[in-house]
């Protein structure tokens, strides 16, 4: 068996090779960037990144390597982020403030080195993209407990920005405070839903009787708790760390499978990956007529296209109780069977994006 010094010497040798290989990879990436500039095409290609991760996972598994698919993904997402920055540094706008769950989602896809812009509302993210002040936007679309984020859906219906990727992120809450003892805490800040998600924890610790102050985001809660030694925040542990509030308890949520789905927005269409989802918005011409939605959905069934989500929204135009429908289905808009279905309903359907199916 090798000694610690021998192991470290070997690690140093391997790291030298890794850096050399990464530099060689980045030379090629730079050329890819030039080709994309010449053809004016998109830098970020999620379907290509997915194909790389899938291929490397297979290689790692079949050679008995220690890296599983999550490890390969964690390492390579960072490499891709650095690569994209080298091709063209592109700004990412997200629903802030810094340390929000959306910020975490953005960093998980765009890495630590990107240029981020924190914005105060979902609408501001859409507006920033429309004005080309950022290339990408990251916004929440639904939570496994609280359901859909209506503002995101409504803005997708009005805006020209497209969905280019989705990602699911587990949501864990931390309890952070500068108070030395729990019984010194007089008030707790969080987003309204933060309190709802941690009810059992609050009762168990006698914290259901102190004042609960709802604020716009869990990150804002951490900012307020940082200034007040008699306060606590229910927030992400990243926000607690960022704003210097010690975390007293982690994972305090009542159910531990809480997750949020986020959309990455931009202005281009992805290629087909073979494992895609598409989001559309449907305004049925005869929505008031019985069966209009059923007939529409029957066409999906007949074409053997599986739906993964359908959500109705009030149209808010002046037609009384008008509705539109937000529908997710499996497949890419450029696949022939989907094209023929969409063309049949062309006046009713707005395409919102086709993107690689995300996994939790
Ligand atoms: C290099 C490329 O650009 C980006 C970076 C990738 C990479 O580092 O491998 C892959 C896809 C793109 O998001 C490419 O399109 O091949």
- Strand percentage lies at 15-25%
Unreliable sequence segments: none
Compute the number of strand runs.
15
Determine the N-to-C terminus distance: 39 Å
Q: How many domains would you count in the coordinates?
A: 4
Average of pLDDT = 93
Can you name the CATH architecture of the largest domain?
Answer: 3-Layer(aba) Sandwich
Radius of gyration: 23 Å
- Summarize the helix and strand pattern as letters: HHHEHEHEEHEEEHHEHEHEEEHEEHE
Total helix count? Answer: 12
Indicate the CATH class of the largest domain.
Alpha Beta
- Write out the CATH superfamily name of the largest domain: Periplasmic binding protein-like II
How would you characterize the largest beta sheet?
6 strands, mixed
Helix share bin? 40-55%
CATH topology category name of the largest domain:
D-Maltodextrin-Binding Protein, domain 2
Bound molecules: the ligand C=C(O[C@@H]1C=C(C(=O)O)C=C[C@H]1O)C(=O)O
The rough form would be described as globular
Observed structural traits:
360 residues; D-Maltodextrin-Binding Protein, domain 2; 4 domains; 5-stranded mixed β-sheet; binds the ligand C=C(O[C@@H]1C=C(C(=O)O)C=C[C@H]1O)C(=O)O
């Amino acid at each position: 068996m090798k000694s610690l010094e021998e192991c470290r010497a070997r690690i140093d040798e391997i790291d030298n090779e890794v850096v050399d290989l990464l530099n060689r990879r980045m030379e090629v990436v730079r050329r890819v960037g030039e080709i994309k500039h010449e053809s004016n095409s998109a830098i970020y290609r999620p379907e290509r990144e997915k194909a790389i991760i899938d291929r490397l996972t297979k290689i790692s598994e079949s050679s008995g390597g220690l890296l599983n698919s999550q490890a390969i993904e964690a390492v390579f997402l960072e490499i891709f982020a650095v690569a994209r920055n080298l091709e063209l540094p592109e700004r990412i706008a997200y629903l802030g403030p810094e340390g929000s769950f959306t910020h975490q989602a953005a960093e998980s896809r765009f890495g630590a080195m990107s240029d981020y812009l924190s914005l105060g509302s979902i609408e501001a993210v859409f507006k920033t993209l429309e004005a080309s002040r950022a290339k990408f936007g990251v916004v929440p679309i639904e939570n496994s407990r609280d359901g859909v984020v209506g503002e995101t859906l409504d803005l997708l219906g009005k805006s020209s920005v497209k969905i280019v990727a989705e990602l699911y992120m587990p949501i864990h809450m931390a309890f952070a405070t500068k108070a030395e003892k729990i019984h010194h805490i007089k008030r707790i800040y969080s987003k309204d839903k933060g309190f709802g998600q941690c009810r059992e924890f609050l009762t168990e610790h006698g914290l259901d009787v102190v004042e609960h102050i709802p604020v716009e985001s869990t990150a804002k809660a951490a900012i307020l708790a940082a200034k007040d030694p008699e306060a606590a925040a229910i927030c992400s542990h990243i926000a607690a760390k960022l704003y210097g509030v010690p975390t007293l308890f982690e994972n305090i949520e009542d159910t531990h499978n809480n997750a949020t789905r986020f959309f990455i927005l931009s202005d281009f269409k992805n290629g087909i990956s073979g494992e895609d989802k598409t989001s559309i918005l449907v305004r049925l011409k005869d929505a008031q007529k019985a069966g209009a939605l059923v007939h529409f959905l029957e066409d999906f069934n007949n074409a053997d296209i599986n739906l993964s989500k359908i959500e109705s929204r009030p149209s808010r135009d002046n037609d009384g109780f008008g509705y539109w429908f937000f529908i997710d289905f499996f497949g890419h808009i450029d696949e022939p069977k989907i094209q023929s279905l969409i063309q049949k309903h062309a006046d009713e359907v707005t395409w919102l994006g086709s993107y690689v199916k995300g996994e939790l």
